[in-house]
Prior knowledge:
- The chain is built from ten helices and four strands, in the order ααααααββαααβαβ.
- The protein is mainly alpha-helical.
- The protein has a two-stranded antiparallel sheet.
- It is globular, with a radius of gyration of 21 Å.
- The chain starts with 19 loop residues before the first helix and ends with a strand.
Amino acid sequence: MEADPSGFNIDAPRWDQCTFLGRVKHFFNITDPRTVLVPERELDWAKVMVEKSRMGVVPPGTQVEQLLYAKKLYDSAFHPDTGEKMNIIGRMSFQVPGGMIITGFMLQFYRTMPAVIFWQWVNQSFNALVNYTNRNAASPTSVRELIQGICVKDKNHNEIGHSRRAAAIGITQVVISRITMAAPGMILLPVIMERLEKLRFMQKVKVLHAPLQVMLCGCFLIFMVPVACGLFPQECELPVSFLEPELQDTIKAKYGKLVPYVYFNKGL
Length: 268
C-alpha cells in the first residue's frame, strides 16, 4: 500500500499510549536489540524519511511499511527531544545485549571483592550513560531537574515553564521502571542457577555456567525492558493544579483556563 503524505501522520503512535499494553507494544518495537546492528547509513536514511514524511514530501511510490520501519529505526536511535543520534551504548535498544552481559557477569563473578567492585563500577557506568543518553534534553542531569525544574509544555508543545514537582514525578517513575527492569533477573536468576548447578551434567561443564547465565539474563531482559519502559507514559500529563503555586499563577495569568494540563518528557 502506497503512503498518502496528506493523510499519514508518522508521529501518531501505532498503539494506544494511554494503555499499558499499547505502551509495551510500542517499546517492544523500538527497543528491538536487532536495531543495534543497523548500519549508520540506514539510520540516516530513516531520519531523512521521517523528516520528509513530516513535511509531506515522501518520494513517490513509498509504502506505509517503509515509513513505519523508518520510524522504528528513528525512535530507536534518535533522541525524541533533539532529533540527534544517540550513542549506541546508551540507547534503550542496547539494554538487552549490554544488560545481559553486565548482569550475567555480576551474578557469576561475586566471590572476590575485586571482581564485585569492578563489575559494580561497570554497571554503574553503564547506567549513568543510559540515564544521560535518554534524559529530557532540556535538563542535562536529574540533579538539575530537581533544583531548577523540568521543562513543561502545553498540548501544542509550547514551553510554558519549569516545574520541580514534575521533575520529581518523572525521576520517580524512571527509577521504578529501572528497578522493574532489573529485578526479575537479579532475583530469580540466582535461584535458577543454584538449582541448575546441582545437576550432575552441569557440574561437568562448569565452563558453560557463565555463558548460560548471560543467556538467561538476556531472556529476562528481552521481555522486561519493554515492560518496564511501558509502566508509565513517556510523555507525562500533569494537572496544572499540581504544579508549584507560582507556576500555577503564571499559567493562569497568561492562559486563563485554556491550559488545564501540562506535558513533559520524563525520559527513560
